[in-house]
Amino acid sequence: MLKLCKTITMVFILTFSLSAQNTFQAEYFFDFDPGPGHGTAVSASGDSVFSFSADKSNLTAGFHIIYVRTKNASGLWSHHVLKPFIVSPDVAEPPGYAVNYAEYFFDKDPGFGNGAGMPLTASTNTEGSFTIDKSQLMPGFHTFYVRARDVKWRWTTHIAKPFLVTEPVNKKTSGITALKYYFYKDGAPSDTFTVSGFETGTDIEISFQPDFTGLLQDSSYDFHVFTIDSLGRRSLNFVFGDQLISDIEADELTVLVPKTLELKANYPNPFNPSTVIEFGLPQRQNVQLVIYDIIGRKVTELVNKTMEAGYHKIEWNGKNGIGEKAASGFYVYRVLTDQKELSRKMVLLK
């Protein structure tokens, strides 16, 4: 018999401002917010780290999200913390017939008996672990399926688990070949500028005059700086906040064109209510930018046109194609051209 757990055990760590105060009450709910104080209460015992088991026996099979929030002794509720999960159908084999074969496959069903076989000892109650080979999968979202067969050649329905394959990280040390910067104010980034004329290396020391073209005088901006190495890898941003622009000097703008299609991490992420998506085109070409939910349903299309080579920034306002606000949770944004497509994940919080 294939056994499925009816509860979720969570370890909850307070990382927001209320963590410094004693937790007076905690509660959880699934999928839809019933309002503060109307969720299922759990014991928090005044600690900033606590665990509990959530009953999911009444949930239907499919994707769900569990939300957790706390209230301190002053009656203030925290923001909720969310965790998506999947409820699989409860499949039981008839008693007396041993399960003697199991198989798995990715994404597309090859047909009964044509999946990859798994080591299995024949039994009416089988438990075990195994390692699957995902070396041939492309980076991006995939779904893993597993099913079993008994001695009467009767198959179970498959159990599905989505997962993400990330690109391997090249840990080779390489020299810094480019330094770039931009300004950020009220959720909107400026153009990105490149600093040249320095000696490349794994560590660089450089002074330069930023280009203030297009910025407002007597306004405060965040100043973002990052580097690119010889392998094309981008560093984390160094951010200098609230830089007052009091003098505007016009310098020449450097137009950046990537060697291949690029899709950068959206910012901010997680976000509410909007986020900025940046991608780079190596040449003038047709491009689409599409938002999908976690199970692959199209939410909205942000771009579908011919665009010039270079870097482009597109803002998503968190709404679907008919102007309705999207639900909180995980989303995938995908940029597609005639030659290539790239995807990344982001989280909408409410």
Which properties best describe this structure?
4 domains; 0% helix; disordered N terminus; single chain; 350 residues; 45% strand; mainly beta
Provide an overview of this structure:
This protein is mainly beta. The chain has four domains: 7-87, Immunoglobulin-like (Sandwich), CATH 2.60.40; 99-165; 176-245; 262-348, Immunoglobulin-like (Sandwich), CATH 2.60.40. Helices cover 0% and strands 45% of the residues. The protein has no helices and 22 strands. The chain has strands at 7-13, 23-30, 40-42, 49-55, 62-72, 81-87, 99-106, 116-117, 140-150, 159-165, 176-185, 188-189, 193-195, 219-229, 238-245, 262-263, 275-281, 285-293, 298-307, 310-316, 329-336, 341-348. Strands 11, 12, 13, 14 and 15 form a five-stranded antiparallel sheet that branches. A four-stranded antiparallel sheet has the order 3-2-5-6, with no helix packed on it. A four-stranded antiparallel sheet has the order 8-7-9-10, with no helix packed on it. A hairpin with an 8-residue loop joins strand 5 (62-72) and strand 6 (81-87). The protein is globular, with a radius of gyration of 26 Å. It starts with 6 loop residues before the first strand and ends with a strand. The model is unreliable at 1-5, 13-20 and 242-255 (pLDDT under 50).
